[in-house]
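Q: Could you write out the predicted structure for this multi-component system? I'm mainly interested in how the pieces pack against one another.
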Amino acid sequence: MKKLLNRYFGKAWLAVTFLFLYLPLFFMLVFSFNNTRQDAVFTGFSLRWYEALTRDTKIVDGFWLSVQVATAAGVASAVLATFAAFVLVRYRRFAGRTLFSGMVNAPLVMPEVVIGLSLLLLMVGVQNALGWPQRGMLTIVLGHMLLGMAYGTVVVQSRLLEMDRAIEEAAMDLGAKPFQVFFLVTLPNILQAVLAAYLLAFTLSFDDVVIAEFLSGPGVNTLPQVIFGYARRGINPTIYAAATLLIASVTLVVITYSVWVARQTRKREREIAAATRAELLALQAQ
Amino acid sequence: MAKLNLTLPGRRFVIGVPAVWLVLFFMLPFLILLYISFVDMGNDISPFKPIWDSETGLLKLKYENYYSIFQSSDGSGLFQTIYIEAYVRSIWYALCTAVLCLVIGYPFSYFIARSAPNLRPALLMMVMLPFWTSFLLRVYAWKGILADQGVLNQMLLALGLITEPMQMLYTDVSMLVGMTYVYLPFMVLPLYANLVKMDIRLLEAAYDLGASPFKAFWLVTVPLSKAGIIAGFMLVFIPCVGEFVIPSLLGGPENIMIGRVVWDEMFTSNNWPRASALAVVMIGLIVVPLAVYYHFTGDAAEVRR
């Protein structure tokens, strides 16, 4: 009885919840190909909303701005996250360590409204004092870096903790300078996590409305801001077309990344297995 | 054996880069926020002016902004302001969302953790995939599903369950559906991580001792997953308190949450000091459950050791 319940109830619960998770995605996919504005009835297949999308300059401009912002914020976040993770994992003791780790992690729990507001106050203050920077792309990137760095640090940190320090020490023993050790040994070892941090920061930036709304100037709108503006007004199938393209590209990136990770892991396992075998053979030969 | 110890300047550089960045862009803005929450609003167009050339001296703190949050303007009632209402509402919706996520997410994580080991990565990937696609768009899609002319209403009409479209959008229900939907993965991931590590032999022991499946679940599995439940609950509750986008798109005009209030004070009323004070109180609201959380996880970690 229990097994039966577990088997069918479990599968049903999984199925229904996955249905819930994928329902909006499926809905947008279907209705992006609808040939009328009608929301609830699929009246026929058409690509008109995709065509409308390419002609919508607000969306196209927002998209390019978002790509630039997310790329810049992603790269900068990944670099800073690597620094911060390295400090947290390798420097166990230094003055202000508690404060440091607090500052790294706080953006994870801070409401985005608060982050946006406080950064806006800073930007306005600096601008009043120095006449620079104008609110725009740069200020949005700075805001997104805060989020990207916090999430990225968690990712890089866990990889660094797993890493075997003996290989770094071996490199040191062989006479490598500290920064050589970092770029030739440490970085290749944690590259997968740094890339994951970059992807995470990119996605966070590409997805963020709140911080961008606080920090963008007039006429500077990222894609989420444009979509948010449309979404408040009503339903527009052009957005479904944009969503479908985004979902398709994200799926592609995520699948490519996980295939790459799986291949890397398998490669490493094979190398370890080969090394172990060689060692065993050497032992047998003795 | 050589240790990877950088020379002092090198070490200073490695710590300094992220530290300086965080001080400039996290600590400093927060201090400015705190500072502005203690000054008067300018009667100028620029809400900033009176702060910098204050004649009474820079450190004269004004408590009016905080006072006005807690005390209604005619002085009649303490804790009876629209701000307090918005705080209470935000906490209430965040609690409801966290409970809904737990109710849906616990069995979900449980069954993923108990599925065949080679299936688990794929199932987890399927949980993560919607999480990686724009949450704004997914919330937007719910608008199309729940609208009066939306898919759900049309389906119910076609099935003859209702005779005219139900008002689903812009209600508490639509907002909670949206929040539960978006935050479900935040509940599932820590719960899964916890449940997948559980020692199955403990359950077998409970059965051997004559416990019914329900009793075994309630007395063994649930207590063992306490850390996962608390982690998931916090991961949903905390961001939900400050949520801005989902209430704006799916919530009604009468259930305004605190994130929106801060926004309106800032950009509509142009009252920067009060917006700052509201934000500072909001941080306070989040620090309390966090402190409780660390208290609990601290204990849990000690027990495990």
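A: Regarding packing and overall arrangement: The longest helix of chain B spans residues 272-304.
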